[in-house]
Amino acid sequence: MSEVPERRPFKLEEARVLVTGGTSGVGLATARKLASLGAPHVTINGRNKERGEKAKASILQEYPHCQVNFLAGDCCMTEQAIEVGGRAEELMGGVDVLVNSTVSAYPYPSLFHKIDIHDIQGMVLTQVMSHFLMCRVVMDGMRARENGSIINIASDAGKIATPGESLIGGLMAAIIMFSRGLANEAKRSGIRVNCVTPSIIEGTMTHDTVMGGEFSGKLFAKAKQMAQLGVVNAEDMAELIAFLASPASAKLSGQAISLNGGISAA
Fold first, then answer.
1. Is 186 inside any structural domain?
2. For the chain, percent helix, then strand, then coil, each to nearest 5?
3. What local confidence, expressed as pLDDT, does residue 215 receive?
4. What pTM was estimated for this model as a whole?
5. Which residues contact 144 (CB under 8 A, 6 or more apart)?
6. N or C: which end of the chain has fewer CB within 10 A?
7. pLDDT tens for residues 220-249?
């Protein structure tokens, strides 16, 4: 019977962090949080160069000890994902922590029969593809180093069947199951994979889009009333993600953790 290998989890003060969707919302809050905890290298990714450079400057202003990089690219597209991951490895000397926070405001909750069939392909690609591609991009390096932490952002819609969330729920369930399956595969190489599944997150562009929709606005207005512990914001998400990246969660993998202020016990 083979012995279980002894693992040495990296400290956050040693971590090289890549955050996709890191120019705003949860991604930016996470990049800031990990920099505040001493991460020496943080690379943020996003599609908007102007917003990315502004986000980079804001992190550097607060945490000048941290080497911050911005890489423009659409990680839903294979070649751009490869380029972003490769450049991050080159700039930081490796990727120890990958946070996949790239999400789209679409499809926000809407009855399936009201979704334009021509929009569905784009919705699928923008919601799930970056998670799959970026995990694959960093996997070889993490396997070689026999260490790594991957945190994927999905949604409670992937756990609870709710009217208006047939499509988004199916896509979020795909991310959750992908994360669990990958956790089982990657544990042999000392890589942990976890998933955070929020409901609604105040102070984000997705929140504003969802609350502006006729159907989705009513749905989430009711959800907010159920958040008796408080409606979650981007900083709350960043705290949990930082924990999942840290040595404190060194033996935690394959989990899909709901952070929703008590909206549900998903």
1. yes
2. 50, 15, 30
3. 73
4. 0.92
5. none
6. N
7. 777 778 788 888 999 999 999 999 999 999
